[in-house]
Amino acid sequence: MRRIVFHVNRDKPGSDSVRLRLSALAASLGLSEVTGPADNPEAVVVLGGDGTMLSAVHRFPGIPLLGLNLGSLGYLAGVESPHFDDALRALASGDYEVSRRTTLRVGDAVALNEVVVSRGVSGHAIQLELSVNGRVATRLSADGLVVATPTGSTAYSLAAGGPILMPDSESFVVTPICPHALASRPLVIPDTACLSVRARLRARGEKLAVFADGARVQQLGADDAVEIVRADISVPLIQLRGYDPYEVLSRKLGWNGSAIK
Asked: With a threshold of 0.90, does the pTM exceed it?
């Protein structure tokens, strides 16, 4: 890969100076920097956090992403600042691996992390019906529902109490948001399943919101349903040799006894 583009979150302190330094390093390594999607970059170097990675996913569909973390947790932007230079050298030499991440499709939208059905601005719980492959699996009262990929299992789903899936898990996790019954629990299902979420609304004119990676893509009225399936495209993430998802979780979540960084 010789043509790269930088995708930078300039709200992060010091991002411009880091980008200038890395641009100079890239040039010295023989990498050619281009300015946008129209220039057909072969890789995207993302400077920011996981939100910046998600914006790059949607701006540069199908192009491999190298995430350099300027944020806090940074599961997607997995390379930390002491290793930024090494990451660019690995990119220039081809010494890396590409992890192809599963995505979800809801309507015309694709999500790398999750699809969320939410009550929106309503102040009360909503009634939802979840069907899997045409069969009703559960009816629940909650603030909403998260359907997450393995990549997204460390994002909103985790915050809502869902389990962590390894990146190569061929599964989705369905996690209720603030359910109003102790029996409502996260559900891990095969990623070959077709999910349908139906709104059971009581208030006249009430609407539910459907989000894909945080962007509102649809709304549901009473008895409307939305179908969520595995998309036929994947997101290529560039990983340095020796990348270990268990080590990342241990470090980020403090499983090794250290404080979360």
From this structure: yes
